[in-house]
Write a structure and sequence with these properties.
alpha+beta; 6-stranded antiparallel β-sheet; 4 helices; binds adenosine-5'-triphosphate; binds 2-amino-6-hydroxymethyl-7,8-dihydro-3H-pteridin-4-one; EC 2.7.6.3; ATP binding
Amino acid sequence: MSEVYLSLGSNLGDREENLKRAVFELEHWEGIILKKLSPIYETKPVGYLNQDMFLNIAVEVETNIGPYDLLKVVNEIEKKLKRERLIRWGPRTIDIDILLYDDIELKDEVLTIPHPRMWERAFVLIPLSDINPFIKKGDVYIKDLIAELPDKEGVKLYKENWYNGV
Ligand SMILES: Nc1ncnc2c1ncn2[C@@H]1O[C@H](COP(=O)(O)OP(=O)(O)OP(=O)(O)O)[C@@H](O)[C@H]1O
Ligand SMILES: Nc1nc2c(c(=O)[nH]1)N=C(CO)CN2
């Protein structure tokens, strides 16, 4: 089994319900074991600023599904939650990014792991550090990366203990 960390975000529709439904899908997917969930954070949009606030979480799963097939699972769950890609980095009911998959490094036209922008995003690293503060980029712990990120002020705790299924 592999240890995988995911980042989930929603800023369209019932954001919390979208996150719950996505986690429910992951939890009940064959070959995926839900291990840890972060609290929910409300976060200022980065990249494309003219959109509503996001709710973001990080999730740890164990899985025997390989990285490329896991991406297909992620895309299927996004489709199930009616994700539409209207504007790059724009509003979405749900977005699921694969952050880390064991210690593998992948970079091709389909999949890049570690996720290429995770280290510069407080909305990713703050929930991730709740799950595992010992994750490092090289020799640097993520809490020390967070301290340097300009968007860390835009990440606010929204709700803890928000999911009953785990
Ligand atoms: N680690 C990854 N996790 C999820 N998708 C990835 C990853 N690496 C590459 N991709 C590819 O990126 C494509 C576009 O992803 P998406 O439209 O969700 O980008 P985004 O989430 O809006 O922006 P960002 O990638 O900056 O978070 C996906 O269809 C997928 O093929
Ligand atoms: N706060 C926040 N900003 C974003 C997010 C997100 O999940 N949260 N996702 C993006 C594209 O993946 C772009 N910008």
